[in-house]
Specification:
The complex is a heterodimer. Helices cover 51% and strands 12% of the residues of chain A. Chain A folds into three domains: 194 residues, no CATH class; 226 residues, no CATH class; 55 residues. Chain A is α+β, with helices and mostly antiparallel strands. In chain A, helix 1 packs across helix 13. Chain B is of the alpha/beta class. Chain B has a single domain, classed as 3-Layer(aba) Sandwich (Rossmann fold). Helix content of chain B is 36%, strand content 23%. Chain B contains nine helices and nine strands. In chain B, strand 7, helix 6 and strand 8 form a beta-alpha-beta unit. In chain B, helix 4 packs across helix 5 and helix 5 runs parallel beside helix 6. The longest helix of chain B has 17 residues. Chain B is globular and about 50 Å long. The chains are: A alpha+beta, B alpha/beta.
Chain lengths: 508, 237
């Protein structure tokens, strides 16, 4: 009969007390497992965005973290806006010219050219052929010189390094969820997932919104999975964003839901995406210029389709942020250059997310872990109390074992084993209970964070600079930790058993 | 087989003064011999058995058993020796309540052998008449049956000496004779030396050799001088 069997029998002999002790330990360990799972959920939630599909965020000058929070997580309020012209610095000449074509400056230059041509023509009629040739040549040179100055005649300053730049316009809400004005590129160019290779998918019958079409004009929307479920939105429904806050006045402009995103586990699940052109065409969204009336007035719906040819002047546009993917080789240089200017700031979102995790989330997690480990320690003390209290009843049993030939070290080990069995069995109950709890709440967790977690999901490794500890799931440390705890708390009763005076304790 | 020479044992009283319990100039038991130690309660009978089994250390003197001087043993050596060579039957049985009859016997083997002999444990329990009670726990058995299990456990390691400390004192009269017979028979059957401690002549009278503790223990003689004389068969426990 081995010592473990003897220890287990002794535990079974005090079944109620032992069970309560194990339940106490199970609760403590269950809490540890839950906290470790929260670690995992937080990390996964962050990691889901660790491969954002872009590597730089451009936004107004201000706090870097705030820019990340409102542009990546759609939390907090945007700082300010960036002029649209700045966004166009990341675009090629073709796009720039198209975008600038509706601008006041473009129109002014066109007007200027017509006037000059008229002037030149009349001037030609008054001079000799040689003078006419000279005047034309001079005009060409002037025109060539001027064209270098026109912003639509050149590449954007950063375009050569830029794979894509996706604008974000924030400010409106659908219920508690952010409305994001953007371009269809958001879901055609961006990918997500750990490897950054998963394309966004829409539910059956859904599609990405379009820049413009005859049916819905500029007013199409794509809805995140969480929003769709919470607001019961489906393809064909319409939404009216509310201005400025969740409680703000609803815009008269309706957007037609043309797709619902499949769940991605990213903050995009919790947002509504509308066409940026539609965003600008809602009241109060176009940047007002001095001494200028709103071209649409309040009757926006009347212009819904018929204004298709109208290009909102660049001067009246702003973006809240830009999601930029650029060659990493140049990204640091570009970041410096942007930040040295006085218009915008550039941040590397991953760096900021990591910093957020390290500075704010990790200490809270550590605190939680310390608290739960203390709870476990208290459970360990309850094991000590349980075994120690039983010692007076068990002294004669120990004396019998000694009389049968058991050494002092043997009874010492039996008591230590009891402590370990109580601790480990309680711990295993806690681990199973903790996982069951997580599994029970997996639906809520997925809804709230987008993180899918199941019963068999193990907690991540602890963020400590120790190779062994940081390479295995923290849950694998629970049992060795409990054994260590059992040895510590079992020491006192085991020593008491060790010191048992057989002669005095032995019944006759 | 067992030889005790000039054994002395005392305990410290709460006052700090030593209380001499044993002073035995000479005591011998031959191999297979069955000896009854008869004496009053408090006369040092149990202490003597504890000294012989190494449960209690001696102050001075020698205990020789199987040609080994046990008083020179370290505690672990005593433990091992006791487990292998000395069986002990207690007045209160001292069975472990969490274990069945069979497991109690196997437990007796556990500290002497690496692998307990379950077949022998089964046989022993059948021998003491408990073949039908192998898997019963102590609280499911009568006191007589419990003491039978205790006897089987004491014999589990084929000891050379069995120490029985008032083995019938807690047993109803109907079962007392059965236990005495069992101990006598099994010791004879396995050629085991026996020292049985009792204070009743009813039990002592069934053995050939009866030693009055007062005759061998000088201290006990002194203590007995101041105590009322007990009548034959009176239970003093």
């Amino acid at each position: 009969m081995n010592l473990l069997t003897i220890a287990v029998r002794s535990i079974k002999q005090r079944l109620l007390s032992s069970t309560l002790t194990m339940v106490s330990m199970a609760l403590g360990v269950g809490l540890v497992v839950a906290v470790l799972a929260i670690f995992g959920i937080v990390q996964k939630s962050f990691n889901a965005n660790a491969t954002l599909g872009y590597n730089m965020l451009i936004g107004a000058k201000g706090g870097k973290l705030q820019l990340v929070l409102n542009s990546v997580y759609y939390l907090s309020e945007p700082i300010e806006n960036v002029p649209y012209e700045y966004y166009l610095e990341f675009q090629n000449q073709e796009i720039r010219e198209k975008e600038y074509s509706g601008s006041y400056s473009y129109k002014a230059v066109q007007h200027q050219q017509v006037a000059r041509t008229t002037l030149l023509t009349s001037a030609c009629g008054l001079t000799s052929p040689a003078g006419m040739i000279a005047a034309l040549a001079t005009d060409v040179l002037i025109e060539q010189h001027n064209q270098q100055l026109y912003p639509w005649k050149r590449e954007g300053k950063y375009s050569v390094f830029t794979d894509f730049a996706i604008p974000l316009c924030l400010g409106d809400y659908v219920g508690p969820y952010r409305v994001v004005g953007t371009t269809p590129d958001m879901f055609s160019l961006l990918k997500f997932g750990r490897q950054g290779d998963k394309p966004y998918e829409m539910n059956e019958g859904g599609r990405n919104f379009e820049h413009f079409n005859e049916a819905n004009g500029f007013f199409e929307a794509l809805v995140g999975a969480v929003v769709a479920e919470d607001r019961n939105l489906k393809v064909g429904d319409t939404i009216n964003p509310s201005h400025g806050s969740a409680e703000g006045d609803e815009h008269a402009t309706k957007f037609v839901v043309v797709g619902v995103l499949e769940p991605t586990g990213t903050p995009n699940d919790r947002a509504v995406f509308i066409n940026m052109e539609g965003f600008y065409r809602m009241s109060d969204h176009a940047k007002p210029l001095e001494n200028e009336e709103d071209v649409f007035g309040t009757n926006q719906i009347a212009h819904k389709i018929t204004d298709a040819d109208y290009v909102l002047p660049v001067e009246k546009r702003e973006v809240t942020a830009m999601l930029v993917r650029m060659d990493p080789l140049y990204s640091i240089g570009i970041e410096n250059r942007v930040n040295e200017g006085n218009v915008a700031q550039a941040v590397f979102p991953i760096t900021e997310i990591r910093r957020l995790l390290d500075y704010f989330v990790s200490p809270v997690q550590t605190l939680l872990l310390v608290l739960t480990v203390l709870i476990c320690f208290m459970s360990g003390v309850s094991i000590l109390v349980s075994i120690y209290n039983s010692m007076s009843d068990r002294r004669s049993e120990i004396a019998v074992l000694r009389a049968l030939g058991a050494r002092r070290s043997t009874v010492y080990n039996i008591v230590l084993l009891e402590s370990m069995v109580l601790s480990v069995v309680g711990g295993l109950m806690g681990i199973v209970g903790g996982h069951a709890m997580i599994a029970a709440f997996s639906g809520v967790i997925e809804d709230q964070t987008g993180v899918q977690i199941g019963f068999f999901e193990l907690a991540p490794a602890l963020p400590v600079p120790i190779p062994l500890l940081s390479s295995v799931s923290a849950e694998f440390l629970v049992i060795p930790g409990l054994i260590l705890l059992a040895i510590v708390v079992g020491f006192i009763p085991a020593t008491s058993a060790y010191k048992t005076d057989v002669s005095k304790s032995l019944g006759k | 087989m067992l030889e005790i020479i000039d054994l002395k044992k005392s305990f410290v009283q709460p006052s700090g003064e030593p209380l001499q319990i044993l002073e035995i100039p000479e005591f011998r038991v031959e191999g297979g011999e069955q000896v009854v130690l008869l004496g009053r309660s408090g006369g040092g009978k149990t202490t003597l058995l504890h000294c012989i089994s190494g449960i209690t250390s001696t102050d001075s003197g020698k205990i020789r058993f199987l040609d080994q001087e046990l008083t020179k043993f370290t505690e672990p050596m005593w433990d091992r020796f006791r487990a292998s060579n000395i069986g002990y039957v207690f007045q209160t049985f001292n069975l472990l309540p969490a274990f069945t009859a069979l497991e109690n016997v196997l437990l007796g083997m556990s500290f002497a052998k690496d692998v307990p002999d379950q077949e022998y444990a089964n046989w022993l329990l059948k021998r003491v008449g408990l073949g039908h009670r192998l898997n019963h726990k102590p609280d499911q058995m009568s006191v007589g049956e419990q003491q039978r299990v205790a006897v089987a456990r004491a014999l589990a390691n084929r000891p050379r000496l069995l120490l029985a400390d008032e083995p019938t004192a807690n047993i109803d009269p109907a079962n007392q004779q059965g236990i005495v017979d069992l101990i006598k028979e099994t010791c004879k059957e396995f050629n085991i030396g026996l020292i049985l401690v009792t204070h009743t002549m009813e039990v002592a009278g069934q053995f050939d050799r009866i030693d009055q503790l007062e005759d061998i223990n000088l201290v006990s003689t002194e203590l007995a001088a101041g105590m009322p004389e007990f009548e034959k068969g009176e239970n003093q426990s």
